[in-house]
Write a sequence for this structure.
């Protein structure tokens, strides 16, 4: 079955609503506020933001479906000939209040120039303030289970891609425990039809809520102290650096005059860059730091 | 007199020490800590950071003198043929504790490829959390007085350049009340010798301490409330966006594998991105917002 771009967009919009409902239910207090916006160049979206919840301090689940003409800068970056484009997807970032609950990010997207030139992309990665290896392994196994239903090469290939993508080169550390990342999947690259590739992307999207609500539930009542809160502020500052310096979605948004508040909803509600800051020798902060500098470093 | 690159670097190092001493004296409590570093590719610097002072919450006065081989990316961005380079300068950013004291930034620098190809650059701009027009005008007059000693075209030309440079396009607002910015000044562009251009850059550098200590003194005891502190966090978040997304010095530093802690010392000790935040109608926050969206917008 050949999905139209509108059918794909409608499915993504449904995913946005499903994920927001699941997060609200687990949070128990925060509610998503929705804003609907139009893009002057064509299309628009629904931005859903939750703030000051019981678990989520700030989070966004954004849906957009935009079309128009690509700026030359993007056209050459994407190496495409035509400049008419359509792009739709869902983007999520959650910043929890409790430093024991990890930050999470997911994006699933579809891009189309015309009937022949289209692709899917996406990714999901986890950024614990404190790495718990058991959770990191479980998270990767969840993603592997989704990938393995489609292609035994997907997990190793997309996990490696994530290690490369979510690496903060100027800090020589990973953003977190990585995950999967993929882009420009189409029939030429994968030998699979649009329906099958869309099914894979749908399954990635559907796995988000069960994964994250499990982690919310597991850690939302964990006790934390001031030092752990300070460490969370520090880890969040690296998240800002990644998003503003390296993230391609952010760049694409800024370069196509996207809705700025929706693009930058990924940034944390509170953070900071202290110059002098030290963490106890042999403590959990050092252990996480070591993990980030060694485990998911691109080969 | 033909200055050598080492003489220029030594003068900049002296300026760093003079400015740190003046800020310490005005702060009364904070002391600069100095770290000396070497760049693997050649050269090094002295990073001086003040934290948790009575007036300055976090600030850096950095000196560096580096040399080596330019990465291709920078070479083509600078449109230069050769790839051996020498660069020296002083960079300053001050984040005060009190939202009535403005953030300030200055950079003065010298870049050299060989005896024939060299230039000076620099800039100074003021970012009040609350714009006080009287101070903004005084600040501009101070800069104009320095410029006018050298060329009557300098102030209008460099103030316009600053309006363009310090504009946050994706927010459609200026970073602050602007100031002056100039780059690649040399004999070909200015019809002035190296000694005269260096004298101009020196005078810009020497004007920094009297300007900023005057503003520190004027506002350090001003009373502020929680809302003003929240507005400061908000304005600081825009400062982060400018530095990580737009600032050329930051990009140059990241692309040449500069010392990351020195490059990013410009980032504020505490900030945050709230999604929903409102300010009283007709209040001082709205007035500053309006100023930033109208007064220094590039023509």
């Amino acid at each position: 079955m050949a999905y139209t771009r509108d059918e794909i967009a409608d499915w993504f919009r449904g995913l946005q609503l499903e994920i927001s409902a699941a997060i609200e239910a687990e949070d128990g207090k925060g509610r998503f506020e929705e804003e609907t916006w139009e893009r002057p160049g064509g299309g628009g979206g629904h931005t859903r933001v939750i703030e000051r919840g019981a678990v989520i301090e700030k989070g966004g689940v954004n849906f957009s479906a935009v079309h128009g003409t690509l700026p030359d800068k993007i056209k050459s970056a994407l190496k495409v000939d035509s400049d008419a484009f359509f792009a739709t997807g869902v983007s999520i970032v959650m910043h929890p209040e409790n430093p024991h609950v990890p930050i999470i990010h997911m994006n699933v997207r579809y891009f189309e120039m015309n009937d022949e030139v289209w692709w899917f992309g996406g990714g999901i990665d986890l950024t614990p303030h404190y790495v718990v290896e058991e959770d990191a392994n479980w998270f990767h196994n969840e993603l592997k289970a989704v990938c393995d239903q489609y292609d035994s090469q997907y997990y190793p290939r997309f996990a490696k891609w994530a290690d490369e993508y979510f690496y903060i080169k100027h800090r020589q550390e990973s953003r977190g425990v990585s995950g999967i990342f993929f882009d420009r999947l189409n029939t030429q690259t994968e030998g699979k039809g649009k329906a099958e590739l869309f099914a894979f992307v749908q399954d990635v999207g559907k796995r988000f809520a069960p994964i994250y609500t499990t982690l919310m539930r597991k850690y939302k009542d964990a006790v934390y102290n001031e030092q752990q809160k300070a460490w969370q502020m520090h880890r969040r500052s690296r998240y800002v650096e990644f998003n503003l310096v390296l993230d391609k979605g952010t760049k694409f948004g800024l370069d196509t005059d996207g809705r700025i508040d929706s693009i930058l909803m990924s940034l944390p509600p509170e953070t900071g860059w202290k110059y002098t800051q030290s963490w106890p020798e042999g403590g959990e902060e050092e252990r996480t730091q070591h993990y980030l500098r060694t485990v998911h470093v691109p080969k």
